[in-house]
Amino acid sequence: LIWTAGGSTTTMSMTSISTAMTGLNQGATYYLAVRALNGDSVQTALSSTLSTTTRNSGSGPDLGSLAAYPGCEGMGCAATGGRGGTVYTVNTLADTTNAGCAAQNGPSGPTCSLRDALMKSGARTVVFSVGGTITLGSPIYPPPGNLTVAGQTAPGGGIQVRGDGTFGTGGAMIHFTNNADNVVLRYLRLRPGNAPINASLQGLSALSGGDGIHADLRIVDHCSFEWDGNKACAWGGIVTRTTLSWNLWAEGMSPHSTGLLLNAVTTNQAGLDGSSFDGHHNVFATIDHRLPYTNSKYLRWINNLVFGFAYAMLVRGNAQSDIIGNVWDGVSSGLVADPNRQEVRWAYDPAHNEGGLVPGGSAAQFYMSNNFGHHNPNGALDDYTNMLRIAASENSQCNAVGGVCVASDIGVVDPQYKSAGAVALPAGLNDWPITISNLAARNDLRSLLTPTAGAYRRLACDGSWVLNRDSADTMIVDYIMNPALSPTALVSTEGTYPTLAAGTPCADADGDGMPDLWEDSHGLNQNDAADRNTIRANAHGYTNLELYISGLFPNGTALP
Questions:
Q1: 3-class DSSP state for residue 306?
Q2: Burial class (CB in 10 A: 0-12, 13-18, 19+), 406
Q3: Is 337 in a helix, a strand, or coil?
């Protein structure tokens, strides 16, 4: 350990450090780093971050209860995605439609593009034998549900998806439609880029569900989103049991720089009253607003970092909201937050929602704890009193009487809506609890999240994880950690797209999505595609394919 303070340097030799940690959950992944402190002042940068997954002593990785994938946390974890279904290997970067694309095609079998694989029906898992950039010439619309996309399987530099600049006007690159439920997207880089805009100044989004739809059980995890010209993710209509976790969202482009929109436009009051969504451990940087915009009845927003914004979170109607351990940093960033708008704004009825429906039923409840922002910079003030205000509209706040605002809308929100503890959730919404990190200081969260948010790693052919953050994400992380480098204004055009290495595809003789090397090391049959769906006695319901893409069983680590 090299320690520098006061102009002098001291070198300490360390062979090992041990410490006991209690209160950990089996099957959860924890991210560890070391930093040196001098009193309350950090004197060195964080060390490289290590990850470890807790397990039962002597029994290998603990898989926990069956979820969308081992270690999943949040409302969406009941998703099964493509479990037990077919496998499609994306073996071309071309955005083509190939009539011969067939299940279990493998790296060298019939050509399957990303468009082919997403547009197939039935339970399916999409893996990749190519790395690089897929440039779409039109939206992929409408992909059916029961889908797992395992971007972590792409070799080389991983997978990046972008538009070709010819389509947009408020649309999306990947556009799900009504009842395209049960979808799991992981380790993708979704970067729409410059596109035509419509009369509302909207360009191209990465993901969309469309207004008026119903969407249940959707997870987006460890994906990277940059340079959208509309919204990074827009799931309007009725959204239930949806989780966004450990993603990196950055540099939404003006003139319509926005982040997330959930449950936005619907005429289905009953559906809206049962809507649910959670977001945890996400990083947002240099996006103007909708961070997030949610019209959900049940909402959990936990340990998310928003860095560089104008105004942030909008909650509508009789929401039951847990807002815990978040940081809205619009102070140290180059892009400074509007001091006249609070971190969280609440549109409590249709009038404040510009006439649109809002969740009804039981009265709104807000549990706000351990949050930091420009109205609570040190986390010492009461969150509810200082960080929550009434919204006059999506873009304005009731700081003066007028329009929909009345005198009672001004200032601190009536304490009857303040919850003393976490709000009660209906059965099934908290079966996979979110691990909540308590923050002692504002910068604790960026140290926790930035090393592992977004598509920062991939799987090797032996099932081990390989760090794989590209230059676009590295740029974002660097300026979050060094705010003096951060943009002082919204970006208005796409950044420099990384050139991602193609890599070497993993041999997969039977096209079952599991590399021959991994199958051989675990005693499986590389010529029997059916063994991908075998569920081992102690695998808690996970298939062999899911054990591979979990990354928990590398280098011949014994399967359960």
A1: strand
A2: exposed
A3: coil
CA-nearest of 66, 65, 115, 67 to 90 is 115
The one-letter amino acid at 366: F
Task: Give the tens place of pLDDT for each residue, 249-306.
Answer: 999 999 999 999 988 767 889 989 999 999 999 999 999 999 999 999 999 999 999 9
CA 542 to CA 62: how far, in whole Å? Answer: 12
Q: H-type helices in 252-328, by residue range?
A: 269-272
Q: Which candidate, 500, 434, 1, places its Cα nearest to that of 224?
A: 500
Give the DSSP letter string of 419-459: -SSPPP--TTTTSSPPP-PPPSSTHHHHHHHTTTSSS-EEE
Radius of gyration for the chain, computed over Cα atoms and rounded to the nearest angstrom: 23
Asked whether the beta carbons of 417 and 363 are under 8 A apart, the reply is yes
For residue 252, give the amino acid letter: G
Asked whether the beta carbons of 189 and 154 are under 8 A apart, the reply is: no
In our burial notation (b when 16+ CB lie closer than 10 A, e otherwise), range 263-289 reads bbebeeeebbbebbbbbbbbbbbbbbb
Q: How far is CA 119 from the centre of its chain?
A: 23
Residue 58 identity (one-letter amino acid) = G
Residues whose CB falls within 8 Å of the CB of residue 427, separated by 6 or more in sequence, listed in order: none
- In this structure, what DSSP letter does residue 342 have? -
C-alpha span between 223 and 149 (Å, rounded): 11
pLDDT band at 21 (very low <50, low <70, confident <90, very high): low
Contact 328, 370 (CB under 8 A): no
The sign of the dihedral angle between the CA atoms of 53, 426, 145, 132 is: negative
Could you tell me which residues come within 8 angstroms of residue 426 by beta carbon, excluding any fewer than 6 positions away?
274, 276, 298
Query: Which one-letter amino acid corresponds to residue 178?
Result: N
Give me the DSSP letters along 150-190.
EGGG--TT-EEEEE-SS--TT-EEEE--TT---EEEES-EE
From CA 118, how far away is CA 124, in angstroms rounded? 9
The strand pair at 313-316 and 293-294 is best described as: parallel
Within its chain, how far is the Cα of 161 from the centroid?
A: 16
Q: How many C-beta neighbours within 10 Å does residue 476 have?
A: 26
CA proximity to 455, closest of 440, 468, 466: 468
Handedness of CA 274, 280, 282, 284 (dihedral sign): positive
pLDDT beyond 90 at 215: no
DSSP state of 379: S
Residues paired with 313 in a beta bridge = 344
- CA 2 from chain centre, in angstroms, equals 36
| Six token digits for residue 253 | 């482009």
Q: Of 25-34, 398-407, 527-536, which gets the smallest average pLDDT?
A: 25-34
- Per this entry, what is the length of the chain? 560
Residue 542 Cα distances to 110, 187, 212, 514, angstroms: 28, 20, 34, 14
Over residues 60-110, the pLDDT tens digits come to 788 999 999 999 999 999 999 999 999 999 999 999 999 999 999 999 999
